[in-house]
TrEMBL record:
The lineage of its organism: Bacteria, Bacillati, Actinomycetota, Actinomycetes, Mycobacteriales. Residues 7-145 form the Lactate/malate dehydrogenase N-terminal domain. The keyword Protein biosynthesis does not apply. Catalyzes the conversion of lactate to pyruvate. Keywords: Allosteric enzyme, Cytoplasm, Membrane, NAD, Oxidoreductase, Phosphoprotein, Transmembrane, Transmembrane helix. This is L-lactate dehydrogenase. It catalyses: (S)-lactate + NAD(+) = pyruvate + NADH + H(+). The modification Phosphotyrosine is found at Y225. InterPro entries: L-lactate/malate_DH, L-lactate_DH, L-lactate_DH_AS, Lactate/malate_DH_C, Lactate/malate_DH_N, Lactate_DH/Glyco_Ohase_4_C, NAD(P)-bd_dom_sf. Residues 148-311 form the Lactate/malate dehydrogenase C-terminal domain. It comes from Gordonia defluvii. The gene is ldh. Its EC number is 1.1.1.27. Pathway: Fermentation; pyruvate fermentation to lactate; (S)-lactate from pyruvate: step 1/1.
């Protein structure tokens, strides 16, 4: 399933954009990786740096520039441009400046590559994705956000550490906002086919009781803030997570990922908001959502998360 001839463009040559570019090259995702940023000098330097390592990866080329034309012919565009999150600053507080940047920057990019599937990564990703849909008029399958793919990976890692099993055998999702109101879907989570709520300790691991689950949830929500405080930005894990979404599109994988897509119909009493639910991702982009079972508490949490996002949308006139 080698994506021969495919092109991935990354808008924004900051820490996140470059982590995605690096991960895409290492994983051999596309034949062409294009970088776009208003800082043409930085783009040129990043292209040169990556190009010097092409001997050691699958056959590819790296190009870049400050003009949206560099994105022409893209199969997938990953949008990372935006304001940088400061220590202690919530994702939603980033919204105003980034919405305006998206309003001006994204339409010319879409004009250059009208058939590309667009993955929004810029935070606050749910709000920015909703705004981008408004500004471009693209359908929900073609433009969607990275959502809680990274948060779900954090959740699975913490569960695997607690239970002493391989992270690949943990199946659990974070739903709702990519942010403080996100919720873990414990009732549908499993470890190797065993319902997580029935899990007992294994090889000295601890029981995953209510207190442990609450602690893990808190760790998932707070992890980005701790990373930002310590090093200024989160970039490696979101680079890998975003690249995994790109692979699912280019390889038409029909992979279930909790991406943030517009709810344009009534789902659990929620509509007209972008948030994350387990969704089939394939060559067309964000497809069908899974009718995943939720407890009453989880459903209430999902609705509260949607309300948080709706209030933010209204605050910015979206």
């Amino acid at each position: 399933m080698e994506p021969v001839g495919s092109k991935v463009s990354i808008v924004g040559a900051g820490a996140v954009g470059m982590a995605i570019a690096y991960a895409a090259l290492i994983r051999g995702v596309a034949r062409t990786v294009a970088l776009m940023d208003v800082n043409a000098e930085k783009v040129a330097a990043e292209v040169l740096d990556l190009s010097h390592g092409l001997e050691f990866v699958s056959r590819a080329s790296v190009i870049g520039g400050a003009n949206p034309a560099v994105c022409a012919g893209s199969d997938v565009i990953v949008f990372t441009a935006g304001a940088k999150q400061r220590p202690g600053q919530s994702r939603l507080e980033l919204a105003e400046a980034t919405i305006e940047l998206t309003r001006t920057a994204l339409p010319p990019i879409v004009a250059a590559a009208p058939q590309a599937r667009i993955v929004m990564v810029t935070n606050p990703v749910d709000i920015i994705t909703y705004a981008a849909l408004k500004f471009t008029g693209l359908p929900r399958n073609q433009l969607f956000g990275s959502g809680t793919v990274l948060d779900s990976s954090r959740l699975r890692f913490l569960v695997s550490e607690h239970c002493r099993v391989a992270v690949q055998n943990v199946h659990a999702y974070i739903a709702g906002e990519h942010g403080d109101s996100e919720i873990p879907l414990w009732s549908s989570a499993t470890i190797g086919g065993v319902p997580l709520l029935d899990w007992e300790s294994l090889r000295g691991g601890e029981l995953l009781d209510a207190d442990a689950r609450a602690h893990i949830h808190s760790e998932v929500v707070g992890s980005a803030y701790r990373i930002i405080e310590g090093k200024g930005a989160t970039n490696y894990a979101i680079g890998l997570a975003s690249t995994r979404i790109v692979e699912a599109i280019l390889n038409d994988e029909h992979r279930v990922l909790p991406v943030s897509a517009l709810i344009d119909e009534d789902i659990h009493g929620i509509s007209d908001v972008c948030l994350s639910l387990p969704t089939v991702v394939d060559a067309a982009g964000a497809g069908q959502r899974l009718p995943i079972a939720m407890s009453a508490d989880e459903l209430a949490g999902l609705r509260a998360s949607a309300q948080t996002l709706r209030e933010m949308q209204a605050r910015f006139g979206l």
